Amino acid sequence: MTVAAPAMTSRGPERSRRRIKIPNERLFYAVLGFVGLLVVWEFASNFDLDPSTPGVQGLVKRILMSAPTLIWKAGVEDFSSGAIWPHITISLQEWFYGFIISCFLGISLGLSLGWFRRFRLATQPLVSALYSTPTIALFPLIVLIAGIGLESKVILVVLASIFAVIINTMVGVQSVSWKHLEIASSFGASQTQIVRSVVLPTTIPFILTGVRLAAGRSLVGVVVAEFQAANQGVGFYIALNGQTLNTARVFIGLVLLGGFGIFVGELVRLVENRFDAWRPSIHR
Amino acid sequence: MTSAPATQDLALSARGVRMEYLDRGTRERFVAIESLDLDIKQGEFVTIVGPSGCGKSTFVKLVNGLLSASQGEILVRSVAKGKSDAMVFQDSALFPWYKIIDNVSYGLVCAGVSKKQAHERAMPLIKLVGLGGFENKYPYQLSGGMQQRANLARALCVDPAILLMDEPFAALDAQTREVMQAELLRIWRGAEAEGGARKTVLFITHQIEEAVFLSDRVVVMSARPGRIMEDIRIDLPRPRDLHVKRTPEFQEYQEQIWQLIASQLKAAASQFGGSKE
Ligand SMILES: Nc1ncnc2c1ncn2[C@@H]1O[C@H](COP(=O)(O)OP(=O)(O)OP(=O)(O)O)[C@@H](O)[C@H]1O
Ligand SMILES: [Mg+2]
Question: Hey, are the CB atoms on A188 and B83 less than 8 Å from each other?
Answer without folding.
Answer: yes
